[in-house]
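User: Hey, my collaborator sent me this sequence without any context and asked if I could get a structure. I don't really work with proteins. Can you help?
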Amino acid sequence: MWGFIACFVLAVMPTYLLLDAHRQLPIRELAAIIAEVRQPGEEVVMIAFEKPSLVFYSQEPVTFFRRSLDARDYLATKANEGGSVLILGWPNKVRGVGVRLHRERGELVYQVGNYQLVRVNKDRFGEKGDSGSADT
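Assistant: No problem. I've predicted the 3D structure and written it out in structure-token form, which is a compact way to encode the shape of the chain:
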């Protein structure tokens, strides 16, 4: 019994903490970038599985969507507000919302691991011809 407890405390717990720190690294990096580049009043939208740790680490509100189509519909309602939005997601999710990255426009803010952080003007979502293929 004591051997199991000692093994758990001395081996399993430190390994778990190390793996968890490694797993959270991309989210912590993205949260730091969001806190640094977010403009006043700029909304952050994430298209992927909800990551509450992103809200925790960035200390910024984040609107989550699982599907690109839902995010695109939401952003279309915001198109007349003006300004820009930060969108975070996997490249296929970003494309699914209708954003085709153009390096000359400076839309790609940061990329780490499987995630892209892009800045897009909200008025693009009011354009009918700029919608891309949406995922489900």
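In plain terms: The CA atoms of residues 26 and 112 lie 6 Å apart. You can pass these tokens on to your collaborator as they are.
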